[in-house]
Amino acid sequence: MSDYIIGIDIGSFNICAAAGKLDKYGKMQIMGITSSECNGVKKGVVVDIDSTSESIKKCIYELERMIDIKIQGAYIALPGGLSELMQSKGIVAVSSEDGEVTENDVKRVLKAAKIITIPSDKEVIGVIAQQYIIDGYDKIKDPIGMSGVRLEVDAQVILAQSTIVNNLFKSVNKAGIKVMGLVFEPMAISKVVLKEEEIQRGVILVDMGADSVNIYDYEGGKINDINTIGLGGNTITNDISVCLKVPISCAEKLKKKYGAVGYFNKDKSSKIEVNSGYNGKTHIDYNILVEVIEARVEELLLMINNKLKFLKNYENISEIVIVGGGISQIKGIEEFSRKILEKPVRIGSPNYIGASSPIYAVVAGIVEDAASSMKVKHENKINEYEDNNKKSYENWTEASTREKENYENSGFVSKIKEFFTDFF
Questions:
Q1: Of 420 and 231, the one with more pLDDT
Q2: Cβ(274)–Cβ(246) under 8 Å?
Q3: What class has domain 229-347?
Q4: pTM score, two decimals?
């Protein structure tokens, strides 16, 4: 069985796939990452299973070539904009006779928190524990090993429409890949671009997609709110295409290569030669290009700012972190965003070699989230390995004298000594 952890981010413009592996210290490393274009997803929802499946196949094939293994299973993400959070509470009695909370008790109380009334077209995707309570004492993060009679949990239950989840699964399965698990996208991204202190203090994560923008509000160590704007980076591409009369594919390349806002869009006053289709070439004005880009970026940021103003904890927001596609890579976007949003802004990039780009935040988060659940097992293996090594060393020490005598009697050690004497 392979030790690789595979993650797939199914987006509206790109599908990204990454392979991670735990090193000997239990830290996750990205061993390979790739992406391919996708036309079968709109605003995070699969609208064409066949097209999405083909894009996944292509992406996985490239990843297989990088890591030289056959990929059979992967973890995927559920976009936060397609989800709903509900508060819930679970209560169970501690099962052990000595009153010690076990891992099984934690599983039981989380399962109890999932027992809620939900609409028939939705299903429970997962549960996020906010705090555990033992015999009335709250704010417990890890109750395992503690003593008590009654175990409670305050949790958030993640809901999603059954059809959306089923179509995601079908797209991946049709590509010949088994879905190993479903990761909640806001939690996945937060693991690789946010610090625990930020999540406690109050931070906004803005995921700039091609068709939509998801805004995640974190405070007090948990996600408080999710907001979605039904516009994204594709609107900039469309505006460039219409205003400058160039094909969509050409407009996308212009956005990525020359996109700039604020001070950075005043550096040039020149013409750009582009292919207008059918081997024809045309020249466009650089200043017009950046004016179109800046106007749409400003509009999107103003829409984000309006959403933020309605948040209860708006005054407590310490920072805004932007991840996602082309908008996060536009020159000058940080300074430009600070002026409009009136908050500190930074671009969130995963701290992994080969994956340190905001476009890989989701897929790196998927792999990290899956890896975190394996770290405990990994640490147990290390402890077991060290214990076995210690026992082996003790056994070897006890037997070393006897073995040495046997080797010397057979002439093995003396022959080695003669070999090194002659060699040097």
A1: 231
A2: yes
A3: alpha beta
A4: 0.83
